[in-house]
Design brief:
Layout (H helix, E strand, L loop, with lengths): L1 H23 L5 H26 L10 H26 L3 H11 L7 H7 L2 H14 L3 E4 L2 E4 L1 H17 L7
Antiparallel strand pairs: 1-2
Helix pairs in contact: 1-2, 1-3, 2-3
Length: 173
């Protein structure tokens, strides 16, 4: 129970800190910012678990043991990865979100197919995604041409390798 409480506590602190900072200023590379916030909170939390009992601030029986701390780290990292995945879906425009929002705004009457297609600004979606990929250093642009950056190449190798491992198609799109 201590592991769950400690891990959830650190996670909650991370989320609240992230929300507080994002209300003041939105960083260009939000995913990197989120990752850094969560990792710093994890490191400080685990460190405090060992330092505070040593200083006599917290009683030693209340502190986590080394195996419990490892479990907290594993739990926290799992929660972080799930959160980053969910955050990326909410934070950025996606075709599914644009379509659903357009239909939602049409109200109970709905929207005709032709009007839906006309109202969707897919150029805006693709432009924002390309900009995000450049900011995240997945692709780079030089001389008017886009190229896969080393970080993007590594990500693609992981995706293709995973698909190959699972017996799926290695073709994307």
């Amino acid at each position: 129970m201590k592991v769950l409480a400690f891990g959830l506590g650190l996670f909650l602190v991370s989320v609240l800190l992230q929300i507080a900072v994002l209300r003041i200023h939105i960083p260009r590379r939000q995913m990197t910012f989120l990752f850094n916030v969560f990792v710093v909170v994890l490191i400080l939390g685990i460190s405090a678990n060992f330092v505070l009992p040593f200083l006599g601030v917290v009683s030693a029986p209340g502190a986590l043991s080394i195996p419990e701390s490892i479990h907290v780290v594993l739990f926290f990292v799992s929660m972080l990865l799930a959160y980053l995945l969910a955050y990326s879906a909410v934070e950025a425009d996606s075709p599914s979100l644009l379509i659903t929002m357009t239909i939602y705004r049409a109200g109970s009457e709905g929207i005709e197919e032709g009007q839906l297609m006309k109202s969707l600004d897919m150029d805006r979606f693709f432009e924002s995604r390309v900009t995000r990929l450049i900011e995240d250093r997945m692709i780079e642009k030089s001389d008017g041409r886009y190229r896969v950056a080393p970080k993007g190449r590594m990500a693609m190798n992981i995706v293709v390798g995973y698909r190959r491992l699972m017996g799926g198609s290695t073709e994307l799109g």
